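Progress against Task 2.4 (sequence-to-structure conversion) is shown through the following example record, which the project officer requested during the mid-term review.
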Amino acid sequence: MAATSQAEFYGKVTVARGRKTPFATWLARVDWLLFATLIVAFLLSGVVQYVNIFLLTAINILLQFLLLFRINFRFSRLIYPAVMVITIYLLYVGILYMNSSAGPSHYIAFRFHDIITALLILNYILVRRPDFLFTLGAVFIFFLVHGIINWLIVSFAFQLFHPSPGIKAYNFLIFFGMNEKYFGIHRSQGLFWEPGVFQIYLNVALHFFLFYKRQKFWAGLALVSVILTLSTTGIVIAGLQMAYAVIRGRGSPVNKALIILLSLPLLIVYVEFASTVVTDKISGDRAGSYWSRSFDTRNGLAIALDNPFGIGFDPSVYQAIAKQNIFNIQTNIVTDRGNTNGIVMLIYSTGWFWAFIFLTSTYLQKIFPEHRLLFFLVLFLSMSSSPLTFSPFFFLFTLSGFVKSGPLLRPPSR
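Structure tokens generated for the chain above:
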């Protein structure tokens, strides 16, 4: 190889005078231990049931220990308010459990594990001060790329998949999908148990790439990925974020009007598509999803009004009440089931007071503070459509609201 071509070849990795390429810089700026921990924490917040949750929990505990080891087991003073609130909350949960007819305590153990996981990740970020912008970006890119590859394989090579024991999903290596189509296509679910869970992380990724990293390619891929989930909630949230981005974007009113005008055909198609999905979920062949969520919301709120201090974390306690349908809610579904509304679950599990505290703290979160109300709506609507409020992912935002610090993420200067 000639000298010139050698320089060109090695220039793909490093450039002259020891300077790193953008890709090498990106690799160096990512905190890979935090990256791995966030991946596992996200998976604990809705991974497909094919994965052994006990093994994943064990891996998470090991990663949490490594995080503490890297910072010499130090705790930031900035996190003390969060520690105090969570200590009081967990004591309250323990008292609630001892005064209830709940079954085995492993439900409380998992809740404790998830909340403490979020707390330790937050502490690591505050003590070590890693490049959180690049690390979180790498996490979202991982899920985006995997999700697109997953959808392509499910759509064009489903013959490679086989049924997963005990669950509805089919799998091939680390790819998952359902043996059904919706509007003629497979729904994208990534590594999560259903498309409605996957859309949560995709919409947060969309927010991240729109308003923080400001990378149009990844924001566009996140939007396409949300659409491929065919999730009603996901499509509505993504549309809300895109509309906000156009309205609040830089530029003169004339330029904004021109952008809206040029985007009008795409907007009409998007609205028509979203309307079709919503209509089908409410009154079409897939109306069962709407009936389930409607019953869960009304029944959960009725239980919360009847038990203002909460009934605890044990789902069997809730299911016993739901099975009896003591509030005589008219529904077409089997009522002996868990609740899918995370906001309502928060209220009836540990009472109205703690729900108010945690929702207020979620609004005041320090991770994505630049467009606080918009991001709160993203989280609130997502929590309302999934039973993941107590997961490490959501509690990471909730606990950050108690932290006495400035924003943990700042968008780069334009």
